[in-house]
Automatic annotation (TrEMBL):
Alphabetical list of Pfam families matching this protein: Acetyltransf_1
UniProt name for this protein: GNAT family N-acetyltransferase
Entry-linked InterPro entries: Acyl_CoA_acyltransferase, Bact_Acetyltransf, GNAT_dom
Domain N-acetyltransferase span(s) in chain numbering: 7-170
Organism: Xanthocytophaga agilis
Keyword Transferase: yes
Keywords noted in UniProt: Acyltransferase, Transferase
Entries under SUPFAM superfamilies matching the protein: Acyl-CoA N-acyltransferases (Nat)
MF terms in GO: acyltransferase activity, transferring groups other than amino-acyl groups
Amino acid sequence: MLTDTSVLIKEVTQNEISDVLSIAKATWEPTYREILSKAQIDYMYEEIYTATAVEKQIRDQGHTFLILYVADAAVGYASYSLREDKERVYKVHKLHIHPDFQGQKYGRTLVGHLEKEVKNRGARMLEMNVNRYNPAVRFYERCGYQQAREENTPIGDFWMNDFVMYKELY
């Protein structure tokens, strides 16, 4: 748990899932409307961001969700898990900051906290998939992430066209 006078980052429990979903609702469509079709946005949102889906990600897929609060307002969240196919490599599955709080260093705060948390768990590398057309690619590059490769992954009738990005954790 990270705290200062107004910032708190904690692991999500059942009590905070509604806060995660509230931030997701505010960020999902604005983030992807210039990148993906409306049909793909709606499909992916319904697959990933229901209370049941988030609970399943935590319970069955081993995802750890973090939530960032500023002065008791839910501002951002991230999720990660250990990659079972790669030793000491963790994967970021999600990281979103509410649009009203973007550009105020909260994304960098959340990324930094997430990196420390997985490093404390023994990680040597953190990786993530980022849509190739998402402006957040530049944010992650500024945070020290590099592009490893391109990856096209089917989801339903759609494709996710991503960069796989990574950062060595020393």
